[in-house]
Amino acid sequence: MAFTAPALPTVANLINGQWVDGSGSEILTVLNPGTGAELTSFSSSTAEDVDRAVAAARAAQPAWAALSARQRSVALHAIADEFVSRLPEFIGLEVLDAGKPVTAATEEELPDIADSVRHFAGAARVLSGQAAGEYVPGTTTFVRREPLGVVAGVTPWNYPLWQAVWKIMPALAVGNTVVIKPAEITPLSTVAFAAMAQRHLPAGVLNVVNGHGSVVGAALAAHPGVNLVSFTGSTVTGRKIAAAAAQHPTRAILELGGNAPVIVFDDVDVDSAAESITGAALYNAGQECMAATRLIIAEPVAERFLDAIVANLAKVRLGDPTDESTTLGPLISADQRDRAEKLIANRPASSTLRYGGKRPDRPGFYLEPTLITGLSQDDDLVQQEIFAPVMTAQTFTTESEAITLANGVDFGLAGSVWTRDIGRGLRVVNALDYGNVWINNHLVVAPDLPIGGLNASGYGKEGGQLGIEEFTRVKQIGISLT
Ligand code: NAD
Questions:
Q1: Is the CB of 242 under 6 A from ligand 1?
Q2: Can you give the pTM of this predicted structure?
Q3: How far is CA 320 from CA 140, 316, 328, in A?
Q4: Is 255 noted as a catalytic residue in this protein?
Q5: Which CATH number is correct for 13-256+455-478, 1.10.357.160, 3.90.580.10, 2.30.30.40, 3.40.605.10?
Q6: How does pLDDT run across 186-221, given as a tens digit for each residue?
Protein backbone atom coordinates (compact mmCIF):
# COMPACT_ATOMS: atom_id res chain seq x y z
CA MET A 1 0.00 0.00 0.00
CA ALA A 2 1.50 3.33 -1.05
CA PHE A 3 2.03 5.98 1.63
CA THR A 4 -0.60 8.73 1.52
CA ALA A 5 0.54 12.05 2.90
CA PRO A 6 -1.98 13.54 5.36
CA ALA A 7 -3.11 17.17 5.31
CA LEU A 8 -0.73 19.14 7.51
CA PRO A 9 -2.24 21.12 10.40
CA THR A 10 -1.54 24.83 10.61
CA VAL A 11 0.94 25.30 13.43
CA ALA A 12 -0.36 27.94 15.85
CA ASN A 13 -0.98 28.30 19.57
CA LEU A 14 -4.12 26.95 21.24
CA ILE A 15 -5.06 29.32 24.04
CA ASN A 16 -8.42 29.16 25.78
CA GLY A 17 -9.95 27.21 22.89
CA GLN A 18 -8.79 29.66 20.19
CA TRP A 19 -6.04 29.15 17.62
CA VAL A 20 -3.76 32.18 17.49
CA ASP A 21 -0.36 32.79 15.92
CA GLY A 22 2.61 33.17 18.23
CA SER A 23 3.42 36.85 18.80
CA GLY A 24 7.18 36.44 18.25
CA SER A 25 8.85 38.02 15.23
CA GLU A 26 10.74 34.92 14.10
CA ILE A 27 9.38 32.39 11.59
CA LEU A 28 10.40 28.81 12.44
CA THR A 29 10.50 26.15 9.74
CA VAL A 30 9.65 22.48 10.08
CA LEU A 31 11.63 20.09 7.86
CA ASN A 32 10.93 16.58 6.61
CA PRO A 33 13.98 14.63 7.86
CA GLY A 34 13.45 12.02 5.12
CA THR A 35 14.02 14.58 2.35
CA GLY A 36 15.38 17.70 4.03
CA ALA A 37 12.54 19.70 2.40
CA GLU A 38 10.43 22.26 4.25
CA LEU A 39 7.04 20.97 5.43
CA THR A 40 5.64 24.14 6.95
CA SER A 41 6.54 27.18 9.04
CA PHE A 42 5.06 29.07 11.96
CA SER A 43 5.49 32.19 14.09
CA SER A 44 7.57 31.87 17.24
CA SER A 45 5.99 32.63 20.60
CA THR A 46 6.97 34.89 23.47
CA ALA A 47 6.80 34.87 27.25
CA GLU A 48 3.57 36.92 26.92
CA ASP A 49 1.99 34.07 24.91
CA VAL A 50 3.00 31.75 27.75
CA ASP A 51 1.38 34.12 30.28
CA ARG A 52 -1.88 34.01 28.32
CA ALA A 53 -1.85 30.22 28.04
CA VAL A 54 -1.10 29.75 31.75
CA ALA A 55 -3.87 32.24 32.65
CA ALA A 56 -6.34 30.30 30.48
CA ALA A 57 -5.29 27.01 32.07
CA ARG A 58 -5.63 28.48 35.59
CA ALA A 59 -9.08 29.85 34.84
CA ALA A 60 -10.32 26.55 33.44
CA GLN A 61 -8.83 24.33 36.16
CA PRO A 62 -11.35 24.58 39.06
CA ALA A 63 -14.35 23.56 36.92
CA TRP A 64 -12.40 20.72 35.28
CA ALA A 65 -11.23 19.47 38.69
CA ALA A 66 -14.77 19.70 40.06
CA LEU A 67 -15.97 17.05 37.59
CA SER A 68 -16.00 13.49 38.84
CA ALA A 69 -13.24 11.15 37.72
CA ARG A 70 -15.86 9.39 35.61
CA GLN A 71 -16.96 12.59 33.88
CA ARG A 72 -13.37 13.49 32.97
CA SER A 73 -12.79 9.93 31.84
CA VAL A 74 -15.82 10.09 29.51
CA ALA A 75 -14.36 13.17 27.80
CA LEU A 76 -10.92 11.59 27.55
CA HIS A 77 -12.36 8.35 26.14
CA ALA A 78 -14.12 10.43 23.47
CA ILE A 79 -10.66 11.74 22.52
CA ALA A 80 -9.39 8.14 22.45
CA ASP A 81 -12.25 7.04 20.17
CA GLU A 82 -11.63 9.83 17.69
CA PHE A 83 -7.87 9.29 17.84
CA VAL A 84 -8.22 5.60 17.02
CA SER A 85 -10.57 6.39 14.13
CA ARG A 86 -8.02 8.85 12.70
CA LEU A 87 -4.86 6.86 13.38
CA PRO A 88 -3.63 6.81 9.72
CA GLU A 89 -3.52 10.62 9.73
CA PHE A 90 -1.35 10.66 12.87
CA ILE A 91 0.89 7.91 11.47
CA GLY A 92 1.41 10.08 8.39
CA LEU A 93 2.32 13.14 10.47
CA GLU A 94 4.93 11.23 12.50
CA VAL A 95 6.40 9.75 9.30
CA LEU A 96 6.71 13.16 7.62
CA ASP A 97 7.67 15.30 10.60
CA ALA A 98 9.76 12.88 12.71
CA GLY A 99 11.06 10.50 10.02
CA LYS A 100 9.45 7.38 11.52
CA PRO A 101 9.55 4.41 9.13
CA VAL A 102 5.92 3.90 8.13
CA THR A 103 5.81 0.17 8.89
CA ALA A 104 7.16 0.57 12.45
CA ALA A 105 4.88 3.58 13.01
CA THR A 106 1.84 1.63 11.77
CA GLU A 107 2.55 -1.65 13.51
CA GLU A 108 4.16 -0.46 16.75
CA GLU A 109 4.44 3.17 17.75
CA LEU A 110 1.03 4.56 16.87
CA PRO A 111 -0.95 1.53 18.17
CA ASP A 112 1.06 1.89 21.39
CA ILE A 113 0.16 5.58 21.57
CA ALA A 114 -3.52 4.74 21.02
CA ASP A 115 -3.28 2.22 23.87
CA SER A 116 -1.71 4.92 26.05
CA VAL A 117 -4.52 7.38 25.27
CA ARG A 118 -7.05 4.74 26.33
CA HIS A 119 -5.09 3.69 29.42
CA PHE A 120 -4.66 7.22 30.73
CA ALA A 121 -8.29 8.15 29.94
CA GLY A 122 -9.31 6.07 32.97
CA ALA A 123 -6.31 6.99 35.08
CA ALA A 124 -8.17 8.81 37.84
CA ARG A 125 -10.68 6.04 38.54
CA VAL A 126 -8.50 4.06 40.95
CA LEU A 127 -6.09 6.38 42.76
CA SER A 128 -4.30 4.89 45.75
CA GLY A 129 -3.86 6.19 49.28
CA GLN A 130 -3.42 5.19 52.91
CA ALA A 131 -6.50 3.67 54.58
CA ALA A 132 -8.49 5.93 56.86
CA GLY A 133 -7.90 5.11 60.51
CA GLU A 134 -7.26 6.22 64.07
CA TYR A 135 -3.49 6.66 63.82
CA VAL A 136 -3.78 9.32 66.54
CA PRO A 137 -6.20 8.40 69.36
CA GLY A 138 -9.54 10.20 69.10
CA THR A 139 -8.98 11.30 65.50
CA THR A 140 -9.85 9.64 62.21
CA THR A 141 -7.36 10.56 59.55
CA PHE A 142 -7.33 9.95 55.84
CA VAL A 143 -5.61 11.29 52.77
CA ARG A 144 -7.07 12.97 49.77
CA ARG A 145 -5.45 13.09 46.37
CA GLU A 146 -5.98 16.37 44.55
CA PRO A 147 -4.86 17.74 41.20
CA LEU A 148 -1.85 20.03 41.33
CA GLY A 149 -3.40 22.80 39.21
CA VAL A 150 -1.64 23.72 35.97
CA VAL A 151 0.81 21.24 34.44
CA ALA A 152 3.33 22.41 31.83
CA GLY A 153 4.63 19.73 29.46
CA VAL A 154 7.84 20.30 27.50
CA THR A 155 8.49 17.54 24.98
CA PRO A 156 11.37 16.38 22.73
CA TRP A 157 11.40 15.55 19.02
CA ASN A 158 12.21 11.84 19.17
CA TYR A 159 8.69 10.70 20.13
CA PRO A 160 6.65 13.87 19.59
CA LEU A 161 3.15 12.45 19.97
CA TRP A 162 4.00 9.65 22.39
CA GLN A 163 5.56 12.17 24.79
CA ALA A 164 2.70 14.65 24.44
CA VAL A 165 0.13 11.93 25.19
CA TRP A 166 2.02 10.63 28.25
CA LYS A 167 1.96 14.15 29.71
CA ILE A 168 -1.41 15.51 28.58
CA MET A 169 -3.64 12.50 29.26
CA PRO A 170 -2.72 11.54 32.86
CA ALA A 171 -2.45 15.21 33.88
CA LEU A 172 -5.98 15.89 32.59
CA ALA A 173 -7.41 12.64 33.96
CA VAL A 174 -6.66 13.60 37.56
CA GLY A 175 -8.05 17.13 37.17
CA ASN A 176 -5.17 19.35 36.11
CA THR A 177 -5.21 21.63 33.12
CA VAL A 178 -2.28 21.64 30.72
CA VAL A 179 -0.02 23.90 28.67
CA ILE A 180 2.09 21.82 26.29
CA LYS A 181 5.13 23.01 24.40
CA PRO A 182 6.24 20.66 21.61
CA ALA A 183 9.81 20.51 20.32
CA GLU A 184 10.01 23.31 17.75
CA ILE A 185 11.21 20.96 15.00
CA THR A 186 8.34 18.46 15.41
CA PRO A 187 5.14 20.30 16.36
CA LEU A 188 2.72 18.76 13.83
CA SER A 189 1.32 15.71 15.62
CA THR A 190 0.90 17.56 18.94
CA VAL A 191 -0.95 20.42 17.23
CA ALA A 192 -3.20 17.93 15.37
CA PHE A 193 -3.84 15.98 18.59
CA ALA A 194 -4.74 19.17 20.48
CA ALA A 195 -7.09 20.29 17.69
CA MET A 196 -8.89 16.96 17.94
CA ALA A 197 -8.84 16.81 21.75
CA GLN A 198 -10.16 20.29 22.33
CA ARG A 199 -13.44 19.39 20.60
CA HIS A 200 -14.09 17.11 23.60
CA LEU A 201 -12.81 19.46 26.31
CA PRO A 202 -13.88 22.79 27.82
CA ALA A 203 -11.89 25.79 26.53
CA GLY A 204 -8.63 26.37 28.39
CA VAL A 205 -8.27 22.80 29.69
CA LEU A 206 -5.62 22.00 27.06
CA ASN A 207 -3.39 24.74 25.64
CA VAL A 208 -0.43 24.62 23.25
CA VAL A 209 2.38 27.16 22.85
CA ASN A 210 4.89 26.65 20.03
CA GLY A 211 8.36 28.11 19.83
CA HIS A 212 11.94 28.00 21.03
CA GLY A 213 12.74 26.08 24.19
CA SER A 214 14.92 28.89 25.46
CA VAL A 215 11.91 31.25 25.31
CA VAL A 216 8.69 29.26 25.69
CA GLY A 217 10.06 26.30 27.67
CA ALA A 218 12.06 28.57 29.93
CA ALA A 219 9.04 30.84 30.55
CA LEU A 220 6.89 27.84 31.47
CA ALA A 221 9.50 26.43 33.86
CA ALA A 222 9.87 29.79 35.62
CA HIS A 223 6.15 30.65 35.65
CA PRO A 224 4.60 31.15 39.10
CA GLY A 225 1.24 30.00 37.72
CA VAL A 226 2.58 26.55 36.82
CA ASN A 227 2.41 23.85 39.50
CA LEU A 228 4.41 21.10 37.79
CA VAL A 229 6.78 21.02 34.82
CA SER A 230 6.93 17.62 33.19
CA PHE A 231 9.99 17.66 30.97
CA THR A 232 11.50 15.11 28.59
CA GLY A 233 14.69 16.04 26.83
CA SER A 234 18.39 16.44 27.33
CA THR A 235 20.19 16.53 30.67
CA VAL A 236 21.55 20.02 29.92
CA THR A 237 18.05 21.43 29.46
CA GLY A 238 16.73 19.41 32.42
CA ARG A 239 19.18 21.14 34.74
CA LYS A 240 17.99 24.58 33.53
CA ILE A 241 14.35 23.61 34.01
CA ALA A 242 14.97 22.29 37.52
CA ALA A 243 16.81 25.49 38.45
CA ALA A 244 14.02 27.70 37.08
CA ALA A 245 11.30 25.62 38.74
CA ALA A 246 13.14 25.71 42.08
CA GLN A 247 12.49 29.45 42.39
CA HIS A 248 8.85 29.05 43.43
CA PRO A 249 9.34 26.07 44.03
CA THR A 250 7.43 24.35 41.24
CA ARG A 251 7.54 20.57 41.07
CA ALA A 252 9.47 19.03 38.20
CA ILE A 253 9.58 15.61 36.57
CA LEU A 254 12.75 15.21 34.52
CA GLU A 255 12.99 12.41 31.96
CA LEU A 256 16.45 13.05 30.60
CA GLY A 257 19.05 11.33 28.47
CA GLY A 258 20.47 7.84 28.82
CA ASN A 259 23.22 5.55 27.59
CA ALA A 260 21.93 2.06 28.24
CA PRO A 261 24.39 -0.71 29.07
CA VAL A 262 23.65 -4.13 27.59
CA ILE A 263 25.58 -6.83 29.46
CA VAL A 264 25.90 -10.06 27.48
CA PHE A 265 27.17 -13.14 29.38
CA ASP A 266 28.78 -16.10 27.64
CA ASP A 267 25.85 -18.50 28.14
CA VAL A 268 23.42 -16.68 25.81
CA ASP A 269 21.97 -18.00 22.58
CA VAL A 270 24.16 -15.70 20.50
CA ASP A 271 21.99 -15.33 17.41
CA SER A 272 18.73 -14.79 19.22
CA ALA A 273 20.20 -12.31 21.75
CA ALA A 274 22.04 -10.41 18.98
CA GLU A 275 18.84 -10.13 16.96
CA SER A 276 16.79 -8.77 19.89
CA ILE A 277 19.54 -6.37 20.92
CA THR A 278 20.05 -5.02 17.37
CA GLY A 279 16.32 -4.32 17.18
CA ALA A 280 16.38 -2.48 20.52
CA ALA A 281 19.46 -0.50 19.44
CA LEU A 282 18.17 0.69 16.08
CA TYR A 283 14.54 1.37 17.01
CA ASN A 284 13.70 4.96 16.07
CA ALA A 285 17.17 5.18 14.45
CA GLY A 286 18.71 4.92 17.92
CA GLN A 287 17.09 8.24 18.90
CA GLU A 288 15.72 6.54 21.97
CA CYS A 289 16.91 7.41 25.45
CA MET A 290 16.84 3.71 26.39
CA ALA A 291 18.34 2.39 23.12
CA ALA A 292 20.36 -0.83 23.57
CA THR A 293 23.50 0.64 22.07
CA ARG A 294 26.27 0.22 24.71
CA LEU A 295 27.33 -3.42 24.49
CA ILE A 296 29.39 -4.96 27.32
CA ILE A 297 30.18 -8.49 26.21
CA ALA A 298 31.82 -11.45 27.96
CA GLU A 299 35.25 -12.15 26.39
CA PRO A 300 34.65 -15.80 25.45
CA VAL A 301 31.61 -14.97 23.32
CA ALA A 302 32.57 -11.46 22.16
CA GLU A 303 33.79 -12.17 18.62
CA ARG A 304 30.91 -14.50 17.81
CA PHE A 305 28.43 -12.02 19.23
CA LEU A 306 29.88 -9.06 17.31
CA ASP A 307 29.83 -11.09 14.08
CA ALA A 308 26.14 -11.74 14.68
CA ILE A 309 25.52 -8.01 15.24
CA VAL A 310 27.35 -7.17 12.00
CA ALA A 311 25.23 -9.74 10.14
CA ASN A 312 22.10 -8.06 11.52
CA LEU A 313 23.29 -4.56 10.59
CA ALA A 314 23.93 -5.79 7.05
CA LYS A 315 20.24 -6.76 6.79
CA VAL A 316 18.98 -3.28 7.78
CA ARG A 317 17.05 -1.47 5.05
CA LEU A 318 18.04 2.17 5.38
CA GLY A 319 15.83 4.48 3.40
CA ASP A 320 12.86 6.72 2.88
CA PRO A 321 10.50 6.43 5.87
CA THR A 322 7.47 6.47 3.55
CA ASP A 323 8.68 3.21 1.94
CA GLU A 324 7.13 0.17 3.64
CA SER A 325 10.30 -1.89 3.33
CA THR A 326 12.42 0.66 5.25
CA THR A 327 13.58 -0.56 8.66
CA LEU A 328 15.93 2.36 9.46
CA GLY A 329 14.86 5.92 8.74
CA PRO A 330 16.75 9.23 8.94
CA LEU A 331 17.96 11.09 11.98
CA ILE A 332 15.81 14.05 12.93
CA SER A 333 18.10 16.83 11.69
CA ALA A 334 21.40 17.73 10.11
CA ASP A 335 22.60 18.83 13.57
CA GLN A 336 21.92 15.43 15.11
CA ARG A 337 23.64 13.66 12.23
CA ASP A 338 26.65 15.99 12.42
CA ARG A 339 26.93 15.34 16.14
CA ALA A 340 26.95 11.56 15.67
CA GLU A 341 29.40 11.79 12.76
CA LYS A 342 31.75 13.89 14.86
CA LEU A 343 31.72 11.33 17.68
CA ILE A 344 32.46 8.57 15.13
CA ALA A 345 35.24 10.57 13.46
CA ASN A 346 36.88 11.38 16.80
CA ARG A 347 36.90 7.77 18.00
CA PRO A 348 40.20 6.70 19.57
CA ALA A 349 42.84 5.17 17.31
CA SER A 350 42.68 1.99 19.38
CA SER A 351 39.03 1.40 18.42
CA THR A 352 37.74 -0.32 15.28
CA LEU A 353 34.91 0.83 13.02
CA ARG A 354 33.44 -2.62 12.44
CA TYR A 355 30.43 -1.53 10.38
CA GLY A 356 28.88 1.57 8.82
CA GLY A 357 29.86 5.05 9.98
CA LYS A 358 29.07 6.93 6.77
CA ARG A 359 26.19 9.05 5.50
CA PRO A 360 24.52 7.65 2.40
CA ASP A 361 24.58 9.89 -0.67
CA ARG A 362 20.97 11.07 -0.66
CA PRO A 363 18.96 14.06 0.56
CA GLY A 364 17.64 13.88 4.12
CA PHE A 365 19.53 13.23 7.33
CA TYR A 366 20.56 9.58 7.08
CA LEU A 367 23.42 7.72 8.78
CA GLU A 368 24.40 4.11 8.23
CA PRO A 369 23.90 1.66 11.10
CA THR A 370 27.25 1.59 12.83
CA LEU A 371 29.28 -0.63 15.18
CA ILE A 372 32.48 0.50 16.90
CA THR A 373 34.48 -1.98 18.97
CA GLY A 374 37.54 -1.86 21.20
CA LEU A 375 36.40 1.14 23.24
CA SER A 376 37.49 2.11 26.75
CA GLN A 377 35.36 3.44 29.57
CA ASP A 378 36.63 7.03 29.30
CA ASP A 379 35.95 7.35 25.56
CA ASP A 380 33.29 9.89 24.54
CA LEU A 381 31.46 7.19 22.59
CA VAL A 382 30.98 5.32 25.87
CA GLN A 383 30.36 8.29 28.15
CA GLN A 384 28.02 10.34 25.95
CA GLU A 385 24.56 9.64 24.67
CA ILE A 386 25.03 9.19 20.89
CA PHE A 387 21.31 9.24 19.97
CA ALA A 388 21.90 7.66 16.55
CA PRO A 389 22.02 4.10 15.09
CA VAL A 390 25.50 3.61 16.55
CA MET A 391 26.38 0.63 18.74
CA THR A 392 29.57 0.55 20.81
CA ALA A 393 31.27 -2.52 22.28
CA GLN A 394 33.48 -3.24 25.26
CA THR A 395 34.37 -6.62 26.73
CA PHE A 396 34.64 -8.02 30.28
CA THR A 397 35.95 -11.07 32.06
CA THR A 398 34.22 -11.01 35.48
CA GLU A 399 30.71 -10.22 36.67
CA SER A 400 31.91 -7.40 38.89
CA GLU A 401 33.84 -5.86 36.00
CA ALA A 402 30.68 -5.92 33.88
CA ILE A 403 28.76 -4.11 36.63
CA THR A 404 31.52 -1.51 37.03
CA LEU A 405 31.56 -0.78 33.29
CA ALA A 406 27.76 -0.61 33.15
CA ASN A 407 27.53 1.81 36.08
CA GLY A 408 30.54 3.87 35.00
CA VAL A 409 28.66 6.69 33.24
CA ASP A 410 26.67 9.66 34.56
CA PHE A 411 23.34 8.40 33.21
CA GLY A 412 20.97 6.01 34.98
CA LEU A 413 17.94 5.45 32.78
CA ALA A 414 17.84 1.87 31.46
CA GLY A 415 19.97 -1.24 31.05
CA SER A 416 19.74 -4.95 30.41
CA VAL A 417 21.47 -8.21 31.24
CA TRP A 418 21.49 -11.24 28.94
CA THR A 419 22.11 -14.65 30.49
CA ARG A 420 20.37 -18.02 30.96
CA ASP A 421 21.45 -18.00 34.62
CA ILE A 422 18.48 -16.38 36.33
CA GLY A 423 20.25 -15.94 39.69
CA ARG A 424 23.11 -14.12 38.01
CA GLY A 425 20.69 -12.04 35.94
CA LEU A 426 18.83 -10.87 39.02
CA ARG A 427 22.05 -10.28 40.97
CA VAL A 428 23.37 -8.04 38.21
CA VAL A 429 20.21 -6.01 37.57
CA ASN A 430 19.93 -5.45 41.32
CA ALA A 431 23.44 -3.95 41.21
CA LEU A 432 22.71 -1.67 38.23
CA ASP A 433 22.26 2.01 39.09
CA TYR A 434 19.44 2.44 36.58
CA GLY A 435 15.72 3.15 36.85
CA ASN A 436 14.57 0.50 34.33
CA VAL A 437 16.40 -2.82 34.07
CA TRP A 438 15.57 -5.96 32.16
CA ILE A 439 16.80 -9.56 31.90
CA ASN A 440 16.87 -11.08 28.41
CA ASN A 441 14.82 -8.16 27.17
CA HIS A 442 15.20 -4.45 26.45
CA LEU A 443 12.81 -1.53 25.89
CA VAL A 444 9.92 -2.92 27.94
CA VAL A 445 7.60 0.08 27.94
CA ALA A 446 3.84 0.27 28.50
CA PRO A 447 1.53 2.91 29.97
CA ASP A 448 0.76 0.48 32.80
CA LEU A 449 4.41 0.58 33.96
CA PRO A 450 6.44 3.42 35.52
CA ILE A 451 9.54 4.54 33.64
CA GLY A 452 12.08 7.06 34.80
CA GLY A 453 15.74 7.60 35.37
CA LEU A 454 18.28 8.04 38.15
CA ASN A 455 21.38 10.25 38.40
CA ALA A 456 21.92 12.39 35.25
CA SER A 457 18.84 10.76 33.68
CA GLY A 458 16.62 12.79 36.00
CA TYR A 459 13.90 12.01 38.50
CA GLY A 460 10.21 11.29 38.75
CA LYS A 461 8.17 8.63 36.97
CA GLU A 462 5.95 8.59 33.93
CA GLY A 463 3.40 5.85 33.35
CA GLY A 464 1.98 3.29 35.72
CA GLN A 465 0.22 4.21 38.93
CA LEU A 466 3.31 6.01 40.20
CA GLY A 467 3.48 8.15 37.07
CA ILE A 468 -0.20 9.07 37.26
CA GLU A 469 0.09 10.02 40.92
CA GLU A 470 3.03 12.35 40.13
CA PHE A 471 0.29 14.64 38.77
CA THR A 472 -1.46 14.79 42.16
CA ARG A 473 -0.80 16.24 45.59
CA VAL A 474 -1.70 14.54 48.85
CA LYS A 475 -3.61 16.26 51.63
CA GLN A 476 -3.94 14.75 55.10
CA ILE A 477 -7.33 15.30 56.72
CA GLY A 478 -7.91 14.50 60.39
CA ILE A 479 -11.30 14.71 62.13
CA SER A 480 -11.67 14.76 65.89
CA LEU A 481 -14.07 12.09 67.15
CA THR A 482 -15.04 14.19 70.16
P1 NAD B 1 16.27 19.31 24.35
O2 NAD B 1 16.54 19.25 25.81
O3 NAD B 1 17.11 20.20 23.54
O4 NAD B 1 14.77 19.75 24.05
C5 NAD B 1 13.67 19.15 24.65
C6 NAD B 1 12.59 20.18 24.80
O7 NAD B 1 13.06 21.19 25.69
C8 NAD B 1 12.22 20.89 23.49
O9 NAD B 1 10.84 21.14 23.48
C10 NAD B 1 13.00 22.19 23.59
O11 NAD B 1 12.42 23.25 22.86
C12 NAD B 1 12.92 22.47 25.07
N13 NAD B 1 13.97 23.35 25.58
C14 NAD B 1 15.19 23.59 25.04
N15 NAD B 1 15.86 24.49 25.80
C16 NAD B 1 15.06 24.80 26.83
C17 NAD B 1 15.20 25.66 27.97
N18 NAD B 1 16.31 26.38 28.19
N19 NAD B 1 14.19 25.72 28.87
C20 NAD B 1 13.07 25.00 28.68
N21 NAD B 1 12.87 24.18 27.61
C22 NAD B 1 13.85 24.08 26.71
O23 NAD B 1 16.31 17.81 23.87
P24 NAD B 1 15.99 17.27 22.43
O25 NAD B 1 17.25 17.41 21.66
O26 NAD B 1 14.77 17.88 21.90
O27 NAD B 1 15.66 15.73 22.77
C28 NAD B 1 16.60 14.72 22.83
C29 NAD B 1 16.95 14.42 24.26
O30 NAD B 1 15.81 14.01 25.01
C31 NAD B 1 17.91 13.25 24.36
O32 NAD B 1 18.96 13.60 25.23
C33 NAD B 1 17.08 12.12 24.94
O34 NAD B 1 17.74 11.15 25.67
C35 NAD B 1 16.10 12.84 25.77
N36 NAD B 1 14.92 11.99 25.95
C37 NAD B 1 14.69 11.41 27.17
C38 NAD B 1 13.60 10.59 27.35
C39 NAD B 1 13.30 9.94 28.68
O40 NAD B 1 12.23 9.39 28.85
N41 NAD B 1 14.19 9.97 29.64
C42 NAD B 1 12.72 10.38 26.31
C43 NAD B 1 12.97 10.99 25.09
C44 NAD B 1 14.07 11.81 24.94
A1: no
A2: 0.97
A3: 64, 13, 8
A4: yes
A5: 3.40.605.10
A6: 999 999 999 999 999 999 999 999 999 999 999 999
